[in-house]
Specification:
- With 210 residues, the chain is α/β, with parallel strands linked by helices.
- The protein has one domain: P-loop containing nucleotide triphosphate hydrolases (Rossmann fold, 3-Layer(aba) Sandwich), CATH 3.40.50.300.
- The chain contains eight helices and six strands.
- It has a six-stranded parallel beta sheet with strand order 2-3-1-4-5-6, with helices on both faces.
- Helix 8 links the parallel strand 5 and strand 6.
- The relative contact order is 0.19.
Length: 210
Amino acid sequence: MNYRFITVEGNIGAGKTTLSSLLSKHYHARLVLEAFADNPFLPSFYKNPEQYAFPLELFFMAERYKQWKEVLQAPDMFHQITISDYLFTKSLLFARVNLKDDEYKLYQRLFDIINPQILQPEILIFLNAPIKKLQENIRKRNRGYELSISDEYLQSIQDIYTEYLKQHSVKTLMVDTSNADFLNNPEHFQVITNALEHEYEPGVHYLTLP
């Protein structure tokens, strides 16, 4: 496996952290997980998104930048591979959904200043799950502030990711996770590890689980 920086992405409840953790153990890789629960605006945002969207997104971007800055400044001598459960660009994608136009323009200016300093993944694994599956996963993990997330909101996030992947030549493995169980089904996990043994052209490449 020749990739040294792999990112797992997907919608809310897609299973990013689970797969990232499994891949980290499999490859003895450095694991970078987003500390989303540390965002103090998150519960308030789901109750009143219009009021709290801007501070929510600013906090997320600042924390993601801080985390990656620390990663870059402290190379891990014991791990040659890094695996992350989020793409820094998600800051801009979620902001596009959540912010008003004038707020988004300001946010984008800040993002454009920071983004060139961030390490970009060599390959992206995108977990593509239907809204019904996402809602099932959200209910299973039972984070109180997430239980009110609407199908419409999840669809808007799904759409913005789809648009991004179409417009940018990111080397991407698109995985249909409608019936995925990476934790308990070794065959599902092996599809991912087998795929990572190959080189790909920039663009989206589709994987189907057995």
